[in-house]
Amino acid sequence: MRVWVFGGTAGIGKAVAQIYAARGEDVLCLARRASDIAGVRSERLDLDQPGSMVGNAVERLLLAEGLDPDDRELRDSVLSGETQISSFRKRWFLSKRGAPDLAIVSSGIGAYIRQDLWRDDWWTDSRGARHAGINTIFRVNAISRMWAANELIRAMRRKRSGKVVLIGSRCSTRGAHALEVYAASHAALRGYVLSACRHPAKRGVTVGLVEVGWTLTPMTANLAPHVKSAIERELGKMMTAEQAAEQIVSACERITAGEILEIGK
User: Fold this and answer.
1) Per-residue pLDDT reduced to its tens digit, 32-46
2) Distance between CA atoms of 235 and 214, rounded to whole angstroms?
């Protein structure tokens, strides 16, 4: 099985990629940096870009994955955008061949910003993920992930099989201390999945959402104790990334079109 994991080089995404790699699956990690997991391929993909740029990057990767794997020079030229596939029929065929069987879109960012401390410039801050302004959080967690999912769904529809699973957060429906923006960005994924699942299902493509509970990741590791306690009261006991990954993999195996599964209760 061909598995793509977005954000597969850190946190939950990396733990998910490790599980599939241990099973002997063909795993491709898409993230800002190369994967250090043995036997796992990786390609650079930065969701901290305008959605159209993310969509174009995924399209190029679908085309490159459909080419002869021994023709590395051609594959690299497609990924870099130097080579254009002019024929629609050829693009259609290559994107169909390059589509994975399962895509897990797990990468995302967050920031703990108390509502009363928001500054006006945070609403339109587009300086990048390190600053985690409100605009940036929505661009990475919602808009860019939807663009990526759309390209994957399109290719999977052409081969009439596949599964796209977005990874959300339980705080989208429960709320959490100082996570108003993060929760809202993940709530957008619920509406997307419930709407995007319908027509693809008729062509054998499953689109679903797994909402993860409170998990120890690089984003949550250095929080102040009182913040951790407040979030734990709202979202339950904290899991490790490995525990969350095991439940995500299990959920991906049983999820159906338009289904939203909660884990980490």
Assistant:
1) 889 999 989 999 998
2) 6
Question: pTM to 2 decimals?
Answer: 0.89
Query: What does the pLDDT look like over 50-102, one tens digit per residue?
Result: 889 999 999 999 999 999 988 889 998 999 888 888 898 999 999 999 999 99
- Classify burial at 253, counting beta carbons within 10 Å of its beta carbon; exposed 0-12, middle 13-18, buried 19 or more: exposed
**Rounded-to-10 torsion of CA 255, 15, 3, 75:** 150
Place of tokens 């290719």: 155
Q: 76 - beta bridge partners? A: none
24 or 220, higher pLDDT: 24
39 CB neighbour count, 10 Å cutoff:
11
CATH number 3.20.20.70 given to 2-263: no
Burial environment of residue 200 by CB neighbours within 10 A (0 to 12, 13 to 18, 19 or more): buried
Longest dimension (CA), the chain: 58
| Cβ pair 6, 103 in contact under 8 A | yes
- Domain locations along the chain: 2-263
Question: With contact defined as beta carbons under 8 Å apart, do 146 and 238 qualify?
Answer: no
Q: What is the rounded distance in angstroms from the CA atom of residue 74 to the CA atom of residue 80?
A: 10
CA distance 27 to 39: 8
Q: How confident is the model at residue 179 (pLDDT cuts 50, 70, 90)?
A: confident
Residue bearing tokens 């913040």: 227
CB 36 within 8 A of CB 10: no
